[in-house]
Amino acid sequence: MPQDSAPSLLHDSLPVTPDESSVVPPSGESRTAAPRQGFGAAFDWVDAARDERRRAGLVRTLRPRPADSPLLDLASNDYLGLARHPEVTHGAAEAAHRWGAGATGSRLVTGSTELHARLEEELAAFCGFEAALVLSSGYAANLAAVTALTDRATLIVSDSGNHASLIDGCRLSRARTAVVPHADPEAVRTALTGHDGRALAVTDSVFSVDGDAAPLPALAEVCRARGAALLVDDAHGLGVLGDGGRGAPAAAGLAGDGDVVATVTLSKSLGSQGGAVLGPARVIEHLVNTARSFIFDTGLAPAAAGGALAALRLLRGEPQRAARVGQVAGELHDRLTAAGLAAVRPDAAVVSVRAPSPEQAVRWASDCREAGLVVGCFRPPSVPDGISRLRLTARADLTDEQIDMAVGTVVRTAPGF
Ligand SMILES: Cc1ncc(COP(=O)(O)O)c(C=O)c1O
Q1: Does ligand 1 come within 6 angstroms of the Cβ of 137?
Q2: Is 214 in contact with 249 (CB distance < 8 Å)?
Q3: pLDDT tens-digit profile of 159-215?
Q4: Mutation to probe ligand 1, out of 240, 267, 350, 378 (largest number of atoms < 8 A from CB)
Q5: Integer Cα distance of 308 and 370 in angstroms
Q6: Which InterPro entries match (predicted)?
Q7: 138 CA to centre of ligand 1 in angstroms
Q8: Which of 77, 343, 360, 374 is the most exposed place for a label (fewest CB within 10 A)?
Q9: Which residues have a Cβ under 8 Å from the Cβ of 225 and sit 6 or more positions away?
Q10: CA–CA gap between residue 86 and residue 279 (Å, rounded)
Q11: Is-contact 135 274, C-beta < 8 A?
Q12: Does residue 235's CB lie within 6 angstroms of at least one atom of ligand 1?
């Protein structure tokens, strides 16, 4: 049955995103121009939608940050602290000077430079895959991988905790998607049982909300028993998990296997922007020819490719960075739980701390900010299980003093403390 006619099989929760933020126009004035009047009521419905969001307390807004914020950031995904590393910014600037500010076209026309080719080569080699394809974002990489590796007759088996970009890939593919309970290889086995034909299991390697890792070896075993391929979104694993940060597929001994494809983002550990699909060369060649989010998208900007390449080389030369993220995450977890907070043991960089209610979670995050610490905040309906949390991300470059400050602030501002 095509996916359109089986909505009950789809992930139907809202995409998971942090939602504690607010509009602070730089000048203190409204940044939106007054709308021109007199062209009917075509968009009047957006006011009703806005009012509904307000009533539900679910307004999302933007908070532009200054270049030199005095706040300690435990909300970003800059796990290795490389986004502002001089070698990385130099790599980005030099690439922009040499190749231009933009890629000038889609990858199949003029948007492939030697820099893209070098990044693909080094990324694939580092993560242990035969080949790689760089796209303009991790989101585009997930759309590319899921849609190009499925057709309407394919069965996709998708973890209920997967990132929105994998979910959107499932939707776009129009394949039948069976959403299975979180991190449950037996549920994957059951979903695959009886399906005759192509099948693809898709999972995050590390889940965004709780920072827990998928059971990749068990998932691969189940897929192999049923002849299904496995697609792993390693957005939160690259740079953190595996030997020297080679990622979760490498850590699970699956990198380079003929039935495994991984996607990564260049925007978290590598401190840049962009995404990539890693896999067997024949699969990558298939994506070059068929993946619409690759073909009909301008190539990754040279600055982003140059920054990511510089970050990758730093990581390769300084493998201790990856280990340090894990240590910091473990320390945050241990100290927060020792203080009586309910934190999930982190498998990578994300440390998730439970809050008693959505309102208290928002207040808690706001109190942290007042005290100089930026943390993420998740609350329903962004989190399908209805549990609100603060989300802290460990960074390899945090000092002991900064860790003390972060722990002290989260504990001191906790509801009921
Ligand atoms: C698990 C996961 N996959 C994919 C993405 C998308 O990556 P990008 O931000 O490069 O589009 C993200 C980013 O938040 C993510 O957390």
Answers
A1: yes
A2: no
A3: 999 999 999 999 999 999 999 999 999 999 999 999 999 999 999 999 998 999 999
A4: 267
A5: 33
A6: Aminotrans_II_pyridoxalP_BS, Aminotransferase_I/II_large, AON_synthase_class-II, PyrdxlP-dep_Trfase, PyrdxlP-dep_Trfase_major, PyrdxlP-dep_Trfase_small
A7: 5
A8: 360
A9: 189
A10: 31
A11: yes
A12: yes
Using alpha carbons only, what angle is made at residue 258 by residues 306 and 193, rounded to the nearest 5 degrees? 125
Dist. CA 233 → ligand 1 center (Å): 9
* Ligand 1: nearest atom to the Cα of 163: 1
Q: 144 CA to middle of ligand 1, Å? A: 13
**Cα separation of 55 and 37, whole Å?**
27
Q: What is the 3-state secondary structure (H, E, C) of 285-339?
A: HHHHHHCHHHHCCECCCHHHHHHHHHHHHHHHHCCHHHHHHHHHHHHHHHHHHHC
Ligand 1 within 6 A of 139 CB?
yes
Judged against a pLDDT cut of 90, whether residue 370 lies above it is answered with yes
- For atom 7 of ligand 1, the residue with the nearest CA is 138
Sign of the alpha-carbon torsion through 302, 306, 311, 315: positive
Residue found under tokens 């697609």:
231
CATH number of 86-317: 3.40.640.10
What atom of ligand 1 comes closest to residue 207's alpha carbon?
A: 1
Judge if the beta carbon of residue 162 lies within 6 A of ligand 1: no
7 pLDDT band, cuts 50/70/90, is very low
Looking from the CA of residue 162, the nearest atom of ligand 1 is 1
Give me ligand 1 centre to Cα 48, in Å.
30
Domain range list for the chain:
86-317, 319-412
User: Under 8 Å CB-to-CB from 320, ≥6 apart: which residues?
Assistant: none
